[in-house]
Amino acid sequence: MSSFVLRQDYNELAKSVYSISGAITTVFLFTRLWAKTAKFIGLWRDDYILIGAWASLLMGNGLAAAAPTVYGYNALDGLGRGAEVHCASVTFMYLAIALSKTAFSTTLLRLTGGWIKAGIWFIIILVWALNLALMVLTWLEVCDAHFKYSTLPTKCVSAATAIWVQAGNAACMLAADIILAAMPWFVTSRVQYIPDKERWAVATCMSLVGLSGLVGIGKIVVASYIPTHEQGKVDFTYGIVAYCCIHQGEAAIYIIAQALPILRVLLQGPLESKSDSPPVEFFATIKSTKTNSPAADEVVVHGSVELLQLRSGRIVTAQSEEGRAFRKAGVLKRAGVGQGREMPVFGAAHELHSGFRLRSPNAFSAPTLSLAQTHLAIKRSTQSQPKHKALSKFLDHDGKHDMSRSKQPSVPTVDLRGTSYVTDVTVGTQSIPLLIDTGSADLWIAPSSFVCLDADDNEVPQSECGFPVLLEGDLSGGLVPDQYFSVYYGSGQFAYGPYGLEDVSLGGITVSGQQIALPSTGFIKSFTGDYSGILGLGYPGMVAARDGMAARPALNNTDPFASYDPWLFSAIKRNLTPPVFSLALNIDGGGLLGMGGAVDVPIVGGYASTPILMIDLVGEARAESHFTFYTIIADDYLVNGQSFSNMSSSTNTTSGGRFPVIVDSGYSVNILPPTLVDLYYGALNTPPQLVDIGGSSILAAPCDGEVPSFGIQIDNHVFTMSAQELLVSSMNATINGTVFCGLGIQPGVEGAGALGDPFLSSVVAVFDIGASEMRFAQRSADRSAGVVAGEAAKGSFSETSTGSSTDQVATLREAFPHARFVFPTAARRRATIYKRAFTHQWFNNWKLDPPATDREELQAPGLRETTEYLHALLHEEIGLVPGGARNIVFGGLSQGCAASLTAMLLWEGEKLGAVVGMCGWLPFAERILEQVRGGEGDDGLEDESDPFARDDEGEGGETASSPAARAVGWLREELGVPCTASLSTPFTFQQIPFFLGHGVQDDRVSVILGRRASECLSSVDSRICWKEYDPLGHWYSGEMLRDLVRFVYRETGWNME
């Protein structure tokens, strides 16, 4: 006999194998089940299949042990007693193998799609086909076996055939085991809501199923050594006993491997009681109809669908295995979901239990609460950027308006307006201006070979696309061979081409070998000529990558989506930046992008947080298990302080104030459900009109009208938008003599929306990818003027700090850690330049085209009020700050700088530490220079009516008729600010150092006006430090901040002694 043959005492050995495998699988399986029901949402389909596999394993173990023990069955002696029991035990063993592998494959099916899912289904079918064949073979008679037993009416099967069937099955199972063992590494790498460390741990545990491959090898060896009866060596029935033990090990390995990842859950913290927190965080019912869309070659399927959001953050249908598990367990009834209100999602009515708090899938890091490591100035383009076709369709703003819109209340057709914020990105060695967009993910740049098309797909000159810069030369990393870029925008624009690898730098963060898109062909218009592509900051689940060798247009493209890490996520994974960025936009242009934390700008109060939700808004399979947009659900909306949830009727398709909205820097307006927008419009003094503004149809109101207040409640915080953000002055048109401004809130579809520029201008928005949450803080109403008060009592600044530490200035708060920052708020005034719309501004003014002398009289009333207000504020701060006036630094940005300079010329208080101004101008500069030159009129004679034109010289050296005295006297008279001190004394501003910085490429306040302000101040004997920065627009840069900080250190003498 062969050496492997089991002896007479095989019963004891077999029972030991059965007992150990049964005990171990029981411990691991029930640990998994306990943790899932206690920590997560209960059992899913794969859990039930796994329970079936475990039960089959125990049945096989029990029957195999009972056959020899109870019935005295022994394969060695061929006695028939208990043979049926033995065959049944082997059948259950095969069933355990099939079910355990099916459970494992079902888990993978929930995490993948496309061809991978099809491959997994093939493995499932193969496993069942082969194991069913073996179950049948178990009950067939083996012709040349020692013991002949059959319950199936069929001819006998030869032992050789049976052996080859067994060996073939073992070989196929071995191949399946190898594939299934490798699959977790591939699948989990694409699931974003599992942190990297946990992802690899899960993949490693699940890959332990590969050990069953060793079992498969053992089965092949055993089968090959079982000789036939004719050779007179070993009976087939006797040899198959060895298979029983091997089968049990194969099934046990799969059960244990699927239970091991639960250790990840147990290590995350104490388990929550199911009774304390219902596992269903969100419940909704979609009620709609099925209709064919005449505007697209597709069927819009609605029907009656129930949605559940699980505690893990996933949103599933009630008809899924998760949903059925809830219903079967009665969890929904215990949670009281039936008491919920109606709420819309995706344009249909839903029910929502108001007590639930929505959550995002598992975060992979704690919230990042620090300030940003890098601040980047971004400039607003005057041209709307294209928005993705899929999102346009979701918001129903693609101009086609399918049948689903006809089911809703009548809503005017408004156009989707995108906002463009531009910054320079270094790609290779070139600096390329790109749009910053949180609503897309790819970084694409037009190369020098770009083929420009018109709307009819005809090739046109490259210049018609308007790209200011084209990417030259070859990429250092070459092209990506098996993926291509293809995007289609709602405006009809499109682009497609290859991907390549190149080093990409932004704000000092360099990602080497980053995958970027190089569209070779497209209909793309950069009308203003200020951008050459887009830098998407969205999730990888939004990339426009496709699998394939030849690039094709996205419209009607059936190539499967591909995946890769865009620039931001590459930087995060390589630990080049914390997993967070932030935005502080300005409604009238410009803003800041903060990398690694929150932008350091003035805020009111603290931050509110809300989870980023994994909701499929675009109908793509990858959105089921991947983040796409930065989607949140606000708690409520307030119109004139009244809660929308209280004001809306229960019959409305949007009620309760809760529906998903995306936070997208690419929209110039907020797009919200018509039910909510109608309530807001109803509070206007005059109904809005649909007008054409810049080629887009926008609902607008008279620019000089009042607008009701509007707030968004998130995490018990209400974020309000100013009148300037609700009635956008920069979007204006004149209709029949009335100037209309675009409303910052526009209607979309019921049940969804987008928070764009008006909202993002009112808050600091923190996109915390690591914590899977958005955080918001209300911004100060004015962002242009401020006071920095150094508090010497808490420690002052070191002389050594003016050295290397100031070379890397990130924020003023970091540079002056012991200073108190005061940011006053400008009054709300009518802005003539914005068609008399109300806005927060220090004074009214007309266009700032050099020399900016047109309609100067508009400035006087506001400058008078602002000067008196700022003087009172300075006196108050001087009394509060240790060290008094010398520890005050005063200044501002843009109009805040202009107001600060005017206030300083008329300041009669103590000498301040310093005055700083950025990108500003000096009102009445030309008129002041006239006074400095002698105050002569057109006839060249001195103006004798000037009461300040005195020749006497006061004690102290400054004559009343000196250039400074004439200039200050004229300015006081012009503004109506009385003088409280004698003009014979030196002016305070002549003792204060001024720092003025300006961007050479400033398109809002020309650098010519900045130079004129410096010249004017110098002419009245002020101490001026003038700096120009190129390239820089209407904002500040790191270099400007560094120079400013050095200036303040030098002039104030602050130290840390």
TrEMBL record:
Q: Which UniProt keywords apply?
A: Aspartyl protease, Hydrolase, Membrane, Protease, Transmembrane, Transmembrane helix
Q: Where is this region: Disordered?
A: 935-963
Compositional bias ranges of the Acidic residues kind: 937-956
Matching InterPro entries = AB_hydrolase_fold, Aspartic_peptidase_A1, Aspartic_peptidase_AS, LYPA1-2/EST-like, Pepsin-like_dom, PEPTIDASE_A1, Peptidase_aspartic_dom_sf, PLipase/COase/thioEstase
Occurrences of domain Peptidase A1 (ranges): 421-777
* Matches recorded under Pfam families: Abhydrolase_2, Asp, Fung_rhodopsin
- Single annotated GO MF: carboxylic ester hydrolase activity
**Residues annotated as the enzyme's active site:** D437, D664
Q: Which residues cross the membrane?
A: 16-35, 47-71, 91-111, 118-140, 160-188, 200-226
The record's Gene Ontology biological-process terms are: proteolysis
Gene Ontology terms: cellular component: cytoplasm
The entry's family comment says: Belongs to the AB hydrolase superfamily. AB hydrolase 2 family. Belongs to the peptidase A1 family.
> Any idea what this protein is called?
Peptidase A1 domain-containing protein
Species source reads Cytospora chrysosperma (Cytospora canker fungus)
